[in-house]
Amino acid sequence: MSIAILCGGLGGSRCVDSLARAAGPETVTAIGNVGDDVEILGLHVSPDLDTVLYTLAGLLDEERGWGVRDETYSALAMAGALGAETWFTLGDRDIGLHLVRTRWLREGIPLSEATSRLAQALGVGVRLLPATDDRLRTKIETEGGELDFQEWFVGRGHRDAVRGVRFAGAEDATPAPGVLDGIKMAELVVIAPSNPFVSIFPVLAVRGIREALAEKRVAAISPLVGGRALRGPLAEMMESLGHEPSAAGIAALYGDLVDVVVVAPGDEPPAGGATCDIVMVDPLKREEVGRKLLEALL
Q1: Statement: the pTM of the whole predicted model exceeds 0.90
Q2: 203, 49 in Cβ contact below 8 A?
């Protein structure tokens, strides 16, 4: 079996982990969002790719849902003491990864190759690919103007109501090597329970990816349980953008791209949908959840 997963954010990393535990990491190709990427203190940070790496390597701070567990922050404290902005938290070991990635990128190594090297060094068996090696950045439209995603999400604590979302650079972005082949060869294509607007739509904005999915049977796991996201501002975003925060609303967002939407027990599945335990918060239960998802989808 081969599985392709479109993912972003913590929900995406947990989904990749669940299915990799259930089916074997060698069967999984994870295609990650890069719209959240940001340059901090001169370093290239890929938050969504890094969350997948840390989760699969057993390094993630599961309580916070980001960064490395048992982290220290001496480098960031020194940078702040020297006058640098410290609104985006980077731990010491996290900075080590970003230093290595940034050096490779400056040497001309594409993000996909840098990600592959990091995965290998961390012992990650899943094939993790950025959606594109090209620069693509998510922009959030608010009443006060347009903000870079990280400025809106981290810097301002996503308190500004969202009026629109766009993906700068998407018109010129092409899929990273292996992305289209990973989708083409997959027996199962899954859209992770990630925020569609800022984690999945940036992936779909890359030329050729949506078209490749049109040829496949695609299952989307609802990122809402009981009308609320387990984490993050998705329900609020759906409301501010004129969508119903429900499984039906998620199905409407994806439209004909998705063949089946999987919802949690107690939620009403859309027509043709499936019901299954989709909560993957507890690492000890992820393999079980992954097995049940595979049973529901295959």
Answers
A1: yes
A2: no
Q: Which residues pair with 140 in a beta bridge?
A: 147, 165
Query: How long a stretch of residues is the chain?
Result: 298
Q: Print pLDDT tens along the chain (298 aa).
A: 899 999 999 999 999 999 999 999 999 999 999 999 999 999 999 999 999 999 999 999 999 999 999 999 999 999 999 999 999 999 999 999 999 999 999 999 999 999 999 999 999 999 999 999 999 999 999 999 999 999 999 999 999 999 999 999 999 999 999 999 999 999 999 999 999 999 999 999 999 999 999 999 999 999 999 999 988 999 999 999 999 999 999 999 999 999 999 999 999 999 889 999 999 999 999 999 999 999 989 8
Q: Which residues contact 196 (CB under 8 A, 6 or more apart)?
A: 223, 234, 250, 253, 254
Dump the DSSP string for 244-271. -SSHHHHHHHHGGG-SEEEE-TTSPPPT
Q: Tell whether the torsion through CA atoms of 48, 52, 58 and 63 is positive or negative.
A: positive
